Amino acid sequence: MDVQSKEDIQKQRDRRKRVKRMKTFIVTFLFTWIIISIVSIVLLGVTVISLKKQLNEVSKRLDEKIVAPQNLYDDGDRDAEALLSYNATAEENLAQAGDTLKVYLTFDDGPSDNSDKILDILDDYNVKATFFVVGKEDDASKAVYQRIVNEGHTLAMHSYSHKYASIYASLDAFEEDFYRIQNLLYDVTGVDCDLYRFPGGSSNQVSNTDMTDYIRFLNEENVRYLDWNVASGDATSAAYTSDDLVENVMSDVVKYKTSVVLLHDADNKDQTVEALPKLIEQLQEVGAVILPVSEDTELIQHVSLAEKSE
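The structure corresponding to this sequence follows.
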């Protein structure tokens, strides 16, 4: 074999070695990149799940948080003493073994496109609820008011406009809004409503006027007001699934003899509609009695007004 042939053979060998090394490098790089990508995706997924759980927990806490008005005790000359009752954790309301759980499902902000769906579900399960409605004067909304009454649910007031800045601008503004919703519901249904839920609850910090002034006004009108001690979370986070909403409620109702559950009847509350059958079924499984608010209902109030003794 001549020298040229030997050199050509050696070059071919060297070339094959370089190709082999290059293939090995490429395969190793791709394998490593795939492994790193898989691990990164898994870690990212775990992180997302963890963050979602944390967000849900924070949202739930915010929804349930009860904050007293900052000006609650400012005026020492008042003829009444405002007391924070915090019924949500009142010791006398804590459930004991063998207690029958009373649960009041309450829906704020309707009528809406979801009202009939909610009422259909309640009818399917023969369950009565309480609807804190706002003022709407179109024919469809009036039909919902009437259906609530006809089917044995409790019709209650949640202001006419639900505009915090207007309602809480002054006592006069509150009174005007109150009479407007009360008169509307009476004109449509013949029911003289005597149950009210403050927009934002009685412990909101939005009002320009001390909330006890509004409470005193309602007392003078012989109107009761109701807050809540169990929140579904449907008001604070659109990230909640229907199962999340059910879990939020069930984790708390088992703690109390009397639970007032905050739910919402609004156009964008499809998850609430989806959650309702599952919620009713789970409440029934634990032996809870689901009731509409009546004169005998123990009122859950974040802020109560106790008259001073003379």
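The CA atoms of residues 170 and 273 lie 35 Å apart.
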